[in-house]
Structures are given as structure tokens and as C-alpha cells.
């Protein structure tokens, strides 16, 4: 019971921390971009539900929720996804990242082998322009992860390792909310 409460507290703290960082951003996100992300989230939910034999309509009915309420509930998550996409798109632009037709074809071949689906079907389900964009965002993320660590970040990473807050793995990578919460809780315990 104590571990469960600690895990819940850690999750809540991490969620609050992420919300504060997100709210501090000064980026104007086009409403159409948020709506597009929202449509994607709803379609993703629809796919997960269908895999479990439940329609989205049944899900809404079971939860006594309307589609508008569901969209309102997911809007902030869609806005966060849009902010991330804008940031990665800008990194791709600044780094001159371009995805060739050969890159797209290679990814379709990889996905075809991985999922046992024909390339033609994959192209219908995931249009080439969307796949090219997704590959560009992934390349931007990889480029961001390769940027040199700033002096203050390196110094603080060493301090955090010495204090037992982190093991230093993936110093430039993203951390999950759980990892962030564990590091914060670990730091609190060492005080």
C-alpha cells in the first residue's frame, strides 16, 4: 500500500512538473494543428478499442461521455503533441534534415517485414507524405540527442550522479515521468 501511494505521488508530481513546463512555453500553436493531433489521438483510441472488440461509440456510451467531452478531455494532450511536433520540425529545418524517397521505401519495406503486411496496404494506411514527416521528426529527435551537453548540464549531471539521484544513463535523452519522479524522490530522500 505504501509503494502504491509513493508511485501515485510520484506520477502526480511528474504530471504536475510536465504541465508547468508545458504551460511556460511561449509558442502559438495553430488551432488546426491541435485539431489534427486531436483527430489522430481519437483515431488511435478507436484502433485500440477495435483491437479489444469495442467500438468507440460503445466506449463513449459505457463512460456516459459524448464525443465532444472526449475531445475536450484530450485537447491538452493534443496541444502538447503539437508543441513537440513544432519543436522537432524546427530542429529538422535548422539541421537541414531531408528524407529521401529511398528512405521512405526502406521504411515501408521494414514495416512490411515487421508486420507481415504488403507495402501497398501500408502505403494506403500510412501515406508517404505522413511517413516522410514522421521519419523527419524521428531524425530531428536523433539530431537533438546528439547535440553537445552544455557545461552547466554536464556539471549538474555529475552532481546528481555523486548524490545517487541518477546513474547518468542517457544524459541527453528524454526521461519518462516515472524516471523523473524517481530521481526527484531520490533527491528528497538524500536531504
Task: Tell me what the structure shows.
The protein has 191 residues and is mainly alpha-helical. The protein is built from 9 helices and no strands. The chain has helices spanning 2-24, 31-51, 56-62, 67-95, 101-115, 119-125, 128-146, 151-162, 177-190. The longest helix has 29 residues, at 67-95. The radius of gyration is 20 Å and the shape is globular. The model has no long low-confidence stretch (mean pLDDT 81).
What is the structure about, briefly put?
This protein has 191 residues and is mainly alpha-helical. Helix content is 77%, strand content 0%.
List the defining traits of the structure above:
191 residues, mainly alpha
Amino acid at each position: 500500500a505504501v509503494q502504491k501511494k509513493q508511485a501515485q505521488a510520484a506520477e502526480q508530481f511528474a504530471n504536475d512538473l510536465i504541465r508547468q513546463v508545458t504551460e511556460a512555453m511561449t509558442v502559438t500553436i495553430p488551432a488546426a494543428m491541435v485539431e489534427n493531433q486531436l483527430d489522430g489521438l481519437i483515431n488511435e483510441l478507436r484502433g485500440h478499442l477495435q483491437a479489444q472488440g469495442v467500438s468507440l461509440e460503445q466506449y463513449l456510451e459505457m463512460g456516459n461521455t459524448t464525443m465532444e467531452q472526449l475531445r475536450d478531455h484530450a485537447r491538452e494532450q493534443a496541444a502538447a503533441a503539437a508543441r513537440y511536433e513544432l519543436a522537432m520540425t524546427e530542429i529538422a529545418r535548422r539541421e537541414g534534415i531531408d528524407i529521401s524517397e529511398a528512405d521512405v521505401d526502406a521504411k515501408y519495406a521494414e514495416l512490411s517485414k515487421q508486420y507481415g503486411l504488403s507495402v501497398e496496404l501500408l502505403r494506403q494506411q500510412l501515406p508517404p507524405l505522413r511517413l516522410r514527416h514522421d521519419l523527419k521528426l524521428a531524425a530531428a529527435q536523433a539530431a537533438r540527442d546528439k547535440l553537445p551537453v552544455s557545461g552547466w548540464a554536464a556539471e549538474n549531471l555529475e552532481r546528481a550522479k555523486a548524490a545517487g539521484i541518477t546513474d547518468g544513463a542517457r544524459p541527453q535523452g528524454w526521461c519518462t515521468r516515472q524516471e523523473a519522479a524517481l530521481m526527484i524522490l531520490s533527491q528528497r530522500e538524500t536531504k
